[in-house]
Request: fold
Amino acid sequence: MKIDIDQQRLNGEIDALAAFSDAEAPAVTRVVFSEQDLRARAWLKERFAEAGLAVREDAVGNTFARWQGTNLDLPAVATGSHVDAIPHAGKYDGVVGVLGGLEAIRALQRAGFRPDRSIELIMFTSEEPTRFGLGCLGSRLMSGILKPFAAAALRDAEGQTLDTVRQQAGFHGSLESVRVAPGTYSGFVELHIEQGPILDQQKREQEKVPLGLVTHIAAPASSQITIEGEGGHAGARLMPGRRDALCAASEIILAVEQAALSTGAIDTVGTVGICRVHPGAVNSIPCRVQLSLDVRDTDAARRDRVQAEIEAAVREIGKRRGVSVNIEVINSDPPAESSPEILTALTTACEAEGIAYRRMVSRAYHDSSFMSRIAPIAMLFIPCRGGVSHRADEYSSPEEIGQGVRVLARTLAMLAGGGRPV
Ligand code: HGY
Ligand code: MN
Ligand code: MN
Reply:
């Protein structure tokens, strides 16, 4: 079966989706349940309906577009990703998996393929932690990792709960109903940009676009660190005896970097991405600082050791500087492992298409991390220029995206079973 991808149409759709943004192009900002996010969702549902897919949304806004198979007794095979985008991001992160999944289905339809199993495209709500501080809300609730009462109580920076915001956005019903029983899907395959440099580097060295078959997804953990010192007048309060919360925070940030480097393992990473200073005035000594902490590793035990080392450093710095410190762990997830069967299907599809591939690890987390709790999963990576992501200059070429979509389409056809009507 020859599979042709309409790269021009797909590229046009990626550009059209990027226009639903709260940032100046080429940057994209699309925070969950914002006006732009809701407009993007409405536009996507039209595209799904145009392809003849049956569209439904759950109580937290996960959106499902199903291509009905001939055998409704069989669990569906699924693909998909997210379209929310962190502030000043690019236009490919997540989007390639949703629009690429749609184009994979359309390409199979054009090829006259009829799936035995239904093929379901999923757009997950809030993969990014931007608004509610916890990533993958939609897939966590589907997999049962995140309890509905805990999800409902999550608050955004304005103090609004997820429960209020989702209902204002038009998503009603109990969050308990989001849960998906294991066995509902026979498999889940996510197409995504690598967000790292490995494939792009290999492409430059070997002049062939390699795709990445993801064997493991690193274990993410995030926390919030609050440091309370003593404020005061920046001029009148002399240096001796100051309890400056931002000076303590600065030591903590360097301790995070040191703890991540100290394992000597390339897979250990530690980042402080947010630093909120109060009162944040030129001539006022910072009395309170909030830091976000993101620690990851492919080895969960090594990550936990780094987390413990950071927590010990935070307490030591707090004691020495006379400031109070509090660490709230928001999530600490295990690594996810891909299914050998789905990796084999992806390998077969790459070889059938004559496309180079390599096995690799994902250091970013994805909805696949949580779908792995309820179905066999695997991820398919395409290169992104310079490995750049979560930046406005994130880029993957139409050819690279087209190759990924072709392999995805062939893999879905294999996993769904079926063929062309005789
Ligand atoms: O942070 C991550 O790994 C993902 O991009 N949300
Ligand atoms: Mn992302
Ligand atoms: Mn993503």
The longest strand covers residues 219-228. The chain has a mean pLDDT of 97.
